[in-house]
Design goal:
There is one protein chain. By secondary structure, this protein is α+β, with helices and mostly antiparallel strands. It is 33% helix and 16% strand. The chain has eight helices and eight strands. The strands form two sheets. It has a six-stranded mixed beta sheet with strand order 7-6-1-3-2-8. Strands 4-5 form a two-stranded antiparallel ribbon. Helix 2 packs across helix 4, helix 2 packs parallel to helix 7 and helix 4 packs across helix 7.
């Protein structure tokens, strides 16, 4: 992550605009149906978003990648320029019999990132780190937009939510070395300081759906 350079230089991480907090459940949700479903979310570095959702019961897989731009620019090097339209995103495949789309969004807003920061997360700055939801259909888009409105009306955060809802944007899987990054690099300073606390927030806010052992790309792919 580009923000790691700043972290190394100044020796500290800028404080987030909003601290993690348990936000209300969505009043409108996608109906419970048979078969696996997919959600695509972006909220800063995809290492952290992937790591959080790998610890959620009902999630079958969580894969880091890019969404918002074209297939031709779906690489780490190009995305990091901030000029591709892509955001670092995570594709979450889940079982709606065990967890709903609305609950995934609740986790996203509560524990996975700060949705009030515009085009950044902490030291990571640029549109590639924006808070965004990429619905895979109109129903998800309706739920996402209504939930953002609900949270803003409830003043769940001190500032307005900056999360965008971007329908019809394909997801492209990231390079292999980005997959399971939090799990494979627990002692790396960026992970230890910025990303691991999100797992603790997940465990604290959602103890009944937190699982200690993450579902890894390496295992699901194998």
């Amino acid at each position: 992550m580009l923000g790691l350079l700043g972290f190394a230089i100044i020796g500290q991480v800028p404080s987030a605009a909003e601290a993690p907090r348990l936000v209300p459940a969505a009043l409108v949700d996608v109906p419970n149906e048979d078969g696996l479903q997919t959600a695509v979310l972006a909220g800063g570095c995809f290492w952290g978003i992937q790591g959080v959702f790998q610890h959620v019961e009902g999630v079958v897989s969580a894969t880091s990648g890019y969404a918002g731009g074209s297939a031709e620019t779906a690489t780490y090097e190009q995305t990091e320029t901030g000029l591709t339209g892509h955001a670092e995103a995570v594709r979450i495949v889940f079982d709606p019999q065990k967890i709903s789309y609305g609950t995934l969004l609740r986790i996203f807003f509560s524990a996975a990132h700060d949705p009030t920061q515009l085009d950044r997360q902490g030291p990571d700055i640029g549109p590639q780190y924006r808070s965004a939801i990429f619905p895979v259909n109109e129903q998800q888009a309706k739920v996402a937009n209504r939930y953002i409105q609900q949270l803003d009306e409830a003043k769940a955060f001190n500032s307005a939510i900056a999360t965008t809802v971007e329908l019809g944007r394909p997801f492209y899987e990231a390079e292999g070395y980005h997959q399971d990054y939090m799990y494979n690099n627990p002692g790396q300073p960026y992970i230890a300081v910025l990303e691991r606390p999100k797992i603790e927030a997940l465990r604290r806010f959602f103890p009944t759906i937190y699982r200690a052992q993450p579902v890894l790309v390496a295992k699901t792919a194998g």
